[in-house]
Amino acid sequence: MNDALLETRALSKSFGGIHATENVDLAVREGEIHAVIGPNGAGKTTLIAQLAGMLRPDSGRIFFYGRDITRLAPHARARLGMARSFQITSIFQDMSVLENTMLAVQAHAGHSYRFWQKARSDARLTGPAMAALEQVGLAAKAAMSARKLSHGEHRQLEIAMALAGDTKLLLLDEPMAGMGAEESALMVDLLNGLKAHKSILLIEHDMDVVFALADRVTVMVSGKIIASGTPEEIRADENVRRAYLGEAAVRDA
Question: How far is residue 73 from each of residues 54, 56, 77, 79, 129, measured CA to CA in Å?
Answer without folding.
Answer: 8, 9, 6, 10, 24
